[in-house]
Write a structure and sequence with these properties.
CATH superfamily of the largest domain: Tetratricopeptide repeat domain
Distance between the termini: 124 Å
Organism: Phytophthora cactorum
Structural class: mainly alpha
Keywords: Coiled coil
Strand order of the largest sheet: 1-2
Number of strands: 2
Largest sheet: 2 strands, antiparallel
Protein name: RGS domain-containing protein
């Protein structure tokens, strides 16, 4: 019994241990299942996160691609709009006759440059049209002025004026042009008692006396055409109309103003001042020959320059194209002035201008420009800036430089003249505006010439590059032909070259080039071509014996060979053959030729 009980308790213990082990195993199994489920959840979450990440990357790439496309489209539209504007501008420039060449400039800078040229051209055309209008107006005014001068010349006063000026009877001019002033105030006895050609004084002619027998009769003043008073009034009216035509509408007619002054002393003062000025002019005409004679006598010269009529005669010779006579006369005048009055006398500038005009008429613009430069360097500091001769010399200098197309020198000259005038004249002065316009014109011409030169240089460089490329192409063809003859037509030369290439570790390159060349033989069928192409691929490309072949070339050739149903072309290895030829020719063939030459 005790043994049975002990056995029973032992069995119960075993069962309890077994149940406890089973519970532990079930617990471990449940924990393992829970861990497995947790791992599966984590893996699924990781996959979801990876998928979300890939999707976000794809969406970001797509968004960037769309943005890039939009940006490229906007840029394309802007470029198209810019090209349209440039095309319209070029067409407008061609219509205006402006150069459209802009070497080294493109895009927006080119458009701005073309628009600037158009604005400058339109400004020049506008100024030209305004000048034409002014010339037309001047032509009409000139015709009117000629008619008035003809009317003035036809009056009976002309002979009296010419006679008085010729004999220098200045007192006779006073009653002819200003009878009221000359008839009032204090008269000198010589002036009042001077008799004219008809035996009467100038004042008695205006107030004639009529005698019938020995009895004086009063004369009724009439405005007859043959009377002196009518001639004087008609001449005064002609002068008034000429002044109004020349000076414009702001001129106040003298015929409507009372000639008599309120104060007789003022009239006397004006008359004395006028007579003193006339005497000073007469005395100056006497003194100039005397001074010239003294200087000429000191210099030992017999000829004396007394009046500037020689310059007028030289100008007449120039107009008549008698240039030799004009030069000879101007040389004589120049020598006389230098000896009598000195080199800095203002008449020397007139002589220099006439000599330069002769050179300009004969086409010697360089000589004309040199003369004007020398003359301006002497007289710029002596004469005023607005002196007529200074302005004429400057204009002739710029015209000569323009004719010679020395635009850079003309720009420097304009800048120099502007720097001198701007210190002495107001900013609104007409001379400053004129020199600024000339400066802008010469700058524009200089830029046009420089751009044309740049275009010529660019075209010359392009032509040289084209010739060089043609020469290189012909040389490459010659080298390729000689190399092909060596590889394909000269077995002995090929063997020697292969031996040399083996020494240079380039034998595979040479054999590859020969194999590719054999694929291009005439009359080869498609089956043989595919067989040779596959053989080249397996031997040289797939085995990677040729190191110069890139992975992209390898994939391209493999795809072309392995694509079923696609006809294989004999130019499949053209790019590779050109690459191999470049390496073999530069690295092996050149050294082989050098060694053979030795």
């Amino acid at each position: 019994m005790e043994c049975l009980e002990a056995h029973t308790r032992l069995e119960q213990k075993k069962k309890a241990v077994l149940r406890r082990q089973q519970r532990e195993l079930q617990k471990q199994k449940r924990e393992a299942e829970a861990r497995e489920k947790e791992l599966q959840k984590l893996a699924a979450r990781c996959r979801e996160m990876e998928e979300e990440e890939r999707l976000s990357v794809a969406m970001e790439a797509s968004f960037r691609h769309e943005e890039e496309q939009q940006r490229m489209e906007i840029q394309r539209l802007e470029e198209l709009k810019l090209y349209k504007l440039i095309s319209k501008t070029r067409k407008k420039m061609m219509d205006l006759g402006i150069s459209v060449s802009t070497p080294g400039v493109s895009g927006l800078q080119r458009l701005r440059l073309l628009e600037t040229r158009i604005v400058e051209k339109e400004l020049v055309v506008k100024k030209s049209n305004e000048a034409k209008l002014r010339l037309d107006v001047l032509s009409a005014k000139g015709n009117k002025f000629k008619q008035l001068m003809h009317s003035f010349s036809s009056s009976s006063l002309r002979q009296k004026v010419e006679n008085a000026v010729y004999h220098q009877y200045w007192d006779r001019l006073v009653p002819l042009f200003d009878p009221p002033t000359s008839s009032s105030g204090n008269r000198s006895s010589d002036l009042s008692n001077h008799e004219s050609e008809n035996g009467l004084t100038p004042y008695e002619e205006l107030n004639p006396d009529l005698y019938v027998g020995h009895e004086p009769k009063e004369v009724a003043q009439t405005n007859q055409e043959n009377s002196l008073q009518y001639s004087a009034v008609k001449s005064a009216n002609c002068v008034t109309e000429m002044r109004a035509l020349v000076l414009g509408d702001n001129f106040v007619s003298l015929a409507n103003v009372s000639p008599r002054s309120v104060d007789p002393e003022v009239e006397n003062y004006q008359r004395k001042k006028r007579i003193a000025k006339e005497k000073a002019i007469s005395q100056m005409q006497i003194n100039v020959p005397v001074v010239a004679a003294k200087h000429a006598a000191q210099a030992g010269e017999e000829t004396i320059f007394t009046q500037p009529a020689e310059l007028e005669l030289a100008a007449l010779y120039t107009t008549q194209k008698k240039y030799d006579k004009a030069r000879e006369l101007l040389l004589q005048v120049e020598k006389l002035i230098v000896d009598s009055l000195g080199i800095l006398h203002p008449t020397m500038l007139k002589v220099a201008i006439e000599k330069a005009r002769v050179s300009q008429e004969t086409g010697h613009f360089e000589q004309c420009a040199g003369m004007m430069e020398d003359a301006l360097s002497l007289f710029e500091s002596v004469l005023p800036l607005d002196h007529k001769d200074i302005l004429t010399a400057t204009s002739m200098l710029l015209q000569s430089l323009d004719a010679l197309e020395h635009y850079h020198k003309a720009v420097l000259t304009c800048q120099h003249v502007y720097s001198i005038r701007v210190r002495a004249l107001l900013p609104s002065h007409k001379l400053l505006k004129e020199i600024c316009e000339q400066l802008d014109e010469f700058i524009s011409k200089r830029e046009t010439v420089e751009m044309s030169k740049e275009d010529l240089i660019t075209l010359e460089k392009i032509e040289q590059e084209r010739k060089r490329m043609e020469q290189l192409a012909s040389e490459s063809e010659k080298h390729l032909a000689s190399f092909r003859r060596l590889m394909m037509e000269a077995p002995e030369g090929l063997a020697t070259f292969l031996a040399f290439a083996k020494q240079e570790f380039a034998e595979d390159l040479v054999t590859l080039w020969i194999s590719i060349e054999e694929c291009k033989e005439d009359g080869i069928d498609s089956k043989t071509l595919r067989s040779r192409a596959v053989d080249i691929y397996l031997t040289y490309i797939k085995s990677r014996r040729i190191k110069v072949i890139t992975a992209a070339q390898r994939r391209k050739i493999k795809k072309a060979i392995t694509t079923p149903g696609k006809k294989l072309s004999d130019s499949i290895y053209d790019d590779l053959q050109a690459q191999v030829f470049e390496v073999v020719y530069k690295g092996v063939y050149v050294r082989y030729l050098a060694q053979a030459a030795k």
